[in-house]
Amino acid sequence: MSPALTPGARFRAALAAERPLQIAGAINALAALLAQRAGFRALYLSGAGVANHSCGLPDVGRTELADVLLDTRRITGRVELPLLVDLDTGWGDPALAVRELAAAGAAAVHLEDQVPAKLCGHLPGKHLVSTAEMAARVQAAVAGRPSPDFVIMARTDAAANEGVAGAIARARAYVAAGADMIFAEALTTLDDYRSFTAAVPVPVLANLTEFGRTPYFTVAELRAAGLAMVLYPLSASRAAAAASLGVYTAIRTHGTQQSVLGGMQSRADLYDLLGYHPQP
What we know:
Blueprint: H1 7-17, E1 21-25, H2 29-38, E2 42-45, H3 47-54, H4 65-76, E3 83-86, H5 94-103, E4 108-112, H6 131-144, E5 151-156, H7 159-176, E6 181-184, H8 190-199, E7 204-207, H9 219-224, E8 229-232, H10 235-254, H11 267-274
Parallel strand pairs: 1-2, 1-8, 2-3, 3-4, 4-5, 5-6, 6-7, 7-8
């Protein structure tokens, strides 16, 4: 894709080139480089990823816009793939948050309809704001974007509390408020997705986070159900965390890292990924 395109235009071009567009979660710039090397066309910065990995906190609304901006700048400063960023509930000012994230190089954001003291979308006990309040959030986010290319995605968590029909009704209201795309959180069947995509007149995203409510549907299954995007928000970072604990445990247990060297990225591979070629 041409670097002359805006980030938002690059996201829209990626969506046009691949259906459903597979979006890889990247918690930092190195992860973004790895996802790019694997062939992904778009990246995602998860709010849970920022909370868990950058701050060592659970995803319960305790991180701030400044935390997300820092990680956004680091990723977009290193990789040209378009970046979708988790806006949570907008930190009280969705217009400001969109302006600052767009200035940091983000291509798209998604904004959710939970109350500010939010929970992971696949946990029980979520509380939602009214449809009208979320529509106002969407309108504010749209007002803050620098150009029509920048993507405003509205996420609804309503399926768990209000059923799929309620989630669809909310999604349609969010589209009427200006949302370009819809993030349908925690649906559980392909029939649910078919109902959603048939009723909502904009591209719809499926979140295939691990250990959640949504089964591990394939790209082919989601394509047939009408999905435009499929998100893997923390897959690589979960694997990296488990591998890291294994390395730490091996070193403490054996007094050497020799038994786990085979699972490590080599220095040569790292330098190749970074484009660093020191003189011998």
